[in-house]
Each structure stands twice: as structure tokens, then as C-alpha cells.
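DM between two lab members

TW: hey, do you still have the ABC transporter permease entry open?
JB: yeah, one sec
JB: this one, 414 aa:
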Amino acid sequence: MIIFRLIGESFRFAFDALRQNKLRTMLSLLAITIGIFVIIAVFSAVDTFRAKLQSSVDKLGSNTLYIQKWPWIFSDNFAWWKYMNRPTPNYRDFNALKERLDNVKGITYDVTASGRTVKYRSNSLDGVSITAATIEYNKTWNFDFEEGRYFTESEHANGSPICILGYTIANNLFDGESAIGKQIKLMGRRVTVVGVFKKEGEDMMGISQDELVLIPLSFGRSIIDVNSERYNPQITVRGLDEISLAEMESEVTAKFRAVRGVKPGAEDNFAINKATMITKQLDSLFDMVNIAGWVIGGFSILVGGFSIANIMFVSVKERTNLIGIQKSLGAKNYFILLQFIFESVLLCILGGLFGLLLVQLLLWTLLWAADVKIVIDIYNVMLGIGISITIGVISGFWPAYSASKLDPVEAIRS
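TW: and the structure you got?
JB:
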């Protein structure tokens, strides 16, 4: 109880001192407020964009590999001529690899024709992407249906002229009516709609099924060259959940080298891409942004810390007579010490709270003006309060210590 009473009395002294010097208090808070605002604003923005980008990357699949001609990430010593001479993955490579792989959930070969036009009666849409894929596309990509269904084995084997539409395409072509059973025209052929993907919305990497037309590869072979490099052919392999990505990558690499006839010791003539490659690049990018936030906010907090230390020395000088009276009445050194440390901490906490308030006002403004939603994580709130308390203790300790060591007689005379 004595400890709690001591803390309560110290806070009351500190609050009275701050209340009696309002202008000085507000000026002292300014640097701390700006510093906390910069750090928390940067961290909140980074966390929000990291989460959005990560959700986009997750669509690629954490245990999915993409066999392509070009790697997603290039090294510093990028030898472009080597990649130019690589053969493009083709349908024959896909069939040979599929025969050799056992421990996989699904394997798909797909090609994409971009910038196409689809029509339904008088309605037409330009700039549509048409993807032709093998039957296990639903095992290598995650999606849900708004209505309809996926292709059947017989439809794919027979090359039936059918398709699945993205939500945006279906909504624009059919004006909100059901698309199932209707025929659209694409690349000079009439195709029956059997399904519509559920709306996914836009993401930061442009990975979405909303503006996609999916057709069976067996039908696609009749309208495009599925082995042509211009259609970006790729082989997608999704492993079983119980098998690690590294183990699956090792197996796929070895067996695709055998398919391509790559000699032992020779360099791969293909690239195996995965979502973790993008994740690592994003992590390094956001780490640099975080460091920049710490540096910019750190300078403001450093200035704020010196400002508060200076104000605390002024406060000690102004109250030297009162300190002498308190000590002559029996106040212990630690009571004087805590009194001024609590005042410094209270100053910094108020600055931190004002900084957090400014961040929240900024987020509301962005949401209202640009419909950009950024959320302050509870970790960032605790970080802001923790920094404020730390700066308060550091800035206030030496002035508080000097106050606690004053001789009561000399202090009363001053």
C-alpha cells in the first residue's frame, strides 16, 4: 500500500507541474509526438501492405512449384543470353513429367492468351485473358464458384467447347443474369458457359480469377498453339501437404532434368519458381522501409528526449525551494527521484498518445479520401507506448537524480 500511495502522490505532483505550465508542456510534447507518429505510421503502413501482398502471394500456393523458362527473380550476374536459349516447357514435357511424379496433389499444363475479346449478343469485352489448362487445374489453383461447376473428365478428353468465366466478365456480359448454359463467342468459336468463379476482387499483384476465361486445354489446342512461347506456357505442380517444399522441389528438379535429358553436372535449362522467392524479396524490401522509419522517427524522438531532459532541469530549478521543504519534512530521496521521473514519463506518454491519435486521424482521412484501409496493430500501439515510457525514464533520470541529491537547507535558501 505504501508503494501504491507513493506512486499516486508522485503522479499527482507530476500532473500538477504539467498543468501549471501548459505551453511549456505542449512544446515539450511536440518532438515526441512527431517521432511516435512517424514510427507508428510507417510500421502500420508496412504491416498493412505486407499483409495484402502476402495474401496475393498465398494465392500462388505455399507448396506449389512453377516450371517456366524464366526465373521470377534474377541474380546480380544475370546472364540473359543463357535464358534466351532455354527451351520453353511444352505439352510433351508435361506428359513425361506427369508419368514420373507420384507424390503430388496435382500437376497442370496451361497457356494464356491475353488481350482477347469475348462477345455475347450485343455485349463485348476487350482485354480478356483466356487460359487453356489441363484437367487438374482445380487441384493446383484455389478458387470457388459463384455458380455452375468445373469441367468433367469426359468434357476435357473430348475437347468440348466449354468455359468457366471470371465474376467480372460474367457480370458485364450478362448484366447480372445467370451465365450457365449461355453461349459466348471467343477467338471465332462459340463456347458454352458451365461455371462462374466467385468474386475475388483486385489484389496488389493482379492475381485474380475475376477477368479470366478458363477453357480445357484439349479444346484450346484447336484455336491456339499450346506449345508457342508467346502464350507463356508453364507446368504447375502442387505437392502433398505432408511433403516439404524443399523435398518436392528436389524431386521435381531431378525428374524434369531427366525429361529434358540434362547431363549430370550441367546447368538446368529451366526455372522452378515458387511463392517463397517473392516473399523473401518483399521481406527485404519492407525491412528497409522499417529501418527508414526508425531512422526518421528516431531523430525526432532523440530531439524530443533532449527537449524533455532540458525542461526537467528547468522544472527542478524552479522547484528547488519546494524540494528542500519536502526533504525537511521527511521526504526520502527516492520519493523526489520518482516524482520527477514520473513527470518525465507522463510527458512522454502524453506525447506518444498524441502521436497515436495523429496516426489514427491520418488513417481515417485516407479511408475517407482514397478508400485505403490501413489498420493500427495492437503491437504497434504497445510499441509506441513502450518507446514513450523508455524515453521518459532516460530523459528524466538525470534531472530527477540531481533533484534527489539536493541538500534540504541549501535548497530552501535558493
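TW: got it. The mean pLDDT is 83. Residues 15 and 386 are 20 Å apart (CA to CA).
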